[in-house]
Amino acid sequence: MHGRIKVRTTEEQKILKDKENKRKICAYKKGMAYILSSRKKDSYDPESFSISSQILLLNPHVYTLWNYRKEVILMEIQKCCNMENELVKFLEKELDFTQQCIYNSPKCYSTWHHRYWILENHPSPNWDNEYTLCLKYLTVDDRNFLCWDYRRLILNKTGLCLEKELEFSTDRLNINFSNYSSWHYRSTLRVLNADTLENELNLVQNAVFTDPYDTSAWFYFRWILNHKEILREKRKEVLESLKN
Q1: Is the dihedral of CA 27, 30, 36, 37 positive or negative?
Q2: Please, are residues 154 and 134 in contact by the beta-carbon 8 Å criterion?
Q3: What residue ranges in 12-163 does DSSP mark as E strands?
Q4: Domain count of the chain?
Q5: Is 103 part of any domain?
Q6: Is residue 67 part of a domain?
Q7: Does residue 31 come out as left (phi exceeding 0), alpha (psi in the -120 to 50 range) or beta?
Q8: Distance between CA atoms of residues 176 and 166, nearest Å
Q9: What's the domain range around 98?
Q10: Cα angle at 123 between 118 and 124, to 5 degrees?
């Protein structure tokens, strides 16, 4: 009727969605074909590099394109061997680009790996900035296991105190016990011995008693109970307490 907005039917919406998907697939195939055809060992085509950016912003899981960008970066490193400022500008742009990709898809392994690779090839990497970046992303989503893994790599570069990192892990767990990634991260940091064992047992027992149906803390609990530092008598005592 006149004056009324036409609402598309489910079938019409499906047809339009299929058309849009086909258009994207066609553009993707065309872009990939162009990039691969222009791939050379001694130089690169700026247009191909730009197309790879467009594709990765939409789908950062295309690891072939990250490998292509590594090739380009290595060319730039060789080209700018006596022009460090130019190289730094290029690499900083690439870091900005990876941050856009992480923002769009924070759980893409290829993007995090590429970012770390850039920094390892950077003349003056700012590892403290990466540490802050991890904090930002974990505040948004503290279950992002890729960011936890990346944080562990960065920790080795910054030389930050291990105890401070354990405090951070404890804080995140106190906010949310149901966090498999944080428990796993803690298991990579904590050295169990006579001084630390009781502390860790108290922390994890508190978690499993708070929510016994959540599997996250049980993973860490099992790790402790299977550790060589825990005495047989203590293990038996802990297991008995779970029955009550």
Answers
A1: negative
A2: yes
A3: none
A4: 1
A5: yes
A6: yes
A7: alpha
A8: 15
A9: 28-123
A10: 95
Residue 174 lies inside a defined structural domain of this protein: no
- Residue type, position 211, single letter: D
Contact 39, 29 (CB under 8 A): no
Q: How far apart are CA 71 and CA 232, in angstroms?
A: 54
Q: How far apart are CA 52 and CA 46, in angstroms?
A: 10
Tokens, residue 151: 């944080």
**Pair 61, 108: CB distance under 8 Å:** yes
Which one, of 33, 59, 72, lies nearest residue 111 by Cα?
59
The 3-state DSSP class for residue 55 equals helix
Interaxial angle between packed helices 162-175 and 197-210, expressed in degrees from 0 to 180 and rounded to the nearest 10: 20
Q: What is the pLDDT of residues 157-208, one digit of tens each?
A: 887 778 888 888 888 888 888 888 889 989 888 888 888 888 999 999 999 8
Tokens of 120: 């390892």
Task: Tell me the per-residue pLDDT of 49-107, one tens digit each, with 9 for 90 and over.
Answer: 999 999 999 999 999 999 999 999 999 998 877 788 999 999 999 999 999 999 999 99
Q: How far apart are the first and last CA of the chain?
A: 70
**Cβ atoms 138, 148 nearer than 8 A:** yes
- Report how far residue 74's alpha carbon sits from residue 86's, in angstroms, rounded to the nearest whole number: 14
Q: Where are the beta strands (DSSP E) in the chain?
A: none
The answer to whether residue 111 is domain-embedded is yes
Euclidean distance between CA atoms 184 and 15, whole angstroms? 45
The distance of Cα 243 from the centroid of its chain, to the nearest Å, equals 38
